[in-house]
Amino acid sequence: MAQAAHKAKATVSADIDNAYEGLLDLLPLIDILITSRELPHRLTGIADERASLVEMKARYGCALVGMTMGKRGALLYCEGQFLAAPAYEVPGGCRDTTGAGDAFHAGFLYGLLRGEEIDTSMRLANATAALKCRDLGARTALPDIAELDHFVNNGPAMPQEY
């Protein structure tokens, strides 16, 4: 599917957490690659987070590379710049992180599809992940659009540690 989408000039996004057979063939087809914090190090051998993202972009040509970092938020590398966004505190405390990465990706793509800048899309992504974590299960506490927008504008972000 990635080959067909790439050939059709569609934007290809991927959420990849582990190295697996065929991954090195897939990566050059991806435009938006946001992984777990550990994957860039596994693929490049570079421990420094920023340097590993630069290397991922250089090796595979993705327009945007990034990583989710749990309570530390997210870090992206795009057009020669790093963009960092802090995580949000989970209202009422974190009950379950199952599906938080998927929620992050959904929020990020939602932002891009509605025409937001990357930094705003990152805030939407972090907010979606935080709201998801307030209840058990991967989808139980996902916000609707009104709740997400309200939270992004009013929810407390955690201190940034970059």
Q: Describe it for me?
A:
The chain is globular. Helix 5 (100-113) packs antiparallel against helix 6 and helix 6 crosses helix 7. Helices cover 41% and strands 15% of the residues. The protein folds into two domains: 1-85, UDP-N-acetylmuramoyl-L-alanine:D-glutamate ligase (3-Layer(aba) Sandwich); 88-156, no CATH class. The model has no long low-confidence stretch (mean pLDDT 93). Strand 1 (13-16), helix 2 (23-26) and strand 2 form a beta-alpha-beta unit. The chain is of the alpha/beta class and 162 residues long. It has a five-stranded mixed beta sheet, with helices on both faces. The chain is built from seven helices and five strands; from the N terminus they run H-E-H-E-H-H-E-E-E-H-H-H.
Over all CA atoms, what is the radius of gyration?
A: 15 Å
The CATH class label of the largest domain is: Alpha Beta
**Domains, number:** 2
- Report the structural category: alpha/beta
Give a count of the beta strands, DSSP E runs of length 2 or more: 5
Count of separate DSSP helical elements: 7
Order of helices and strands: HEHEHHEEEHHH
Question: What would the CATH topology of the largest domain be?
Answer: UDP-N-acetylmuramoyl-L-alanine:D-glutamate ligase
Strand proportion: 5-15%
CATH architecture grouping of the largest domain: 3-Layer(aba) Sandwich
Low confidence ranges = none
Give the overall shape: globular
CATH H-tier superfamily of the largest domain: Ribokinase
Main sheet: which strands, in order across? 1-2-3-4-5
Estimate the mean pLDDT confidence.
93
For the terminal residues, how far apart are their CA atoms? 36 Å
Largest sheet: 5 strands, mixed
Task: Report the helical percentage.
Answer: 40-55%
